[in-house]
Amino acid sequence: MTAAWDYYVSSNQLLTELRGLTRAYPFSGDVVRDAHRLVRNDPDSNRSWNLAWLILVKIQD
What we know:
Layout: H1 3-10, H2 13-21, H3 29-41, H4 51-60
């Protein structure tokens, strides 16, 4: 995981963007922390770096 991605997630910029993009679906910090954990647990997977994948997985869960 790059330092830039780590900062993007941990600085709440990701959460802010998700809230702006999905106004009908309430996002909490827990969702972002869970998605961040998924990426950190599987850093070699191409899908781990895909923002849409993170969103869809968390909505499905």
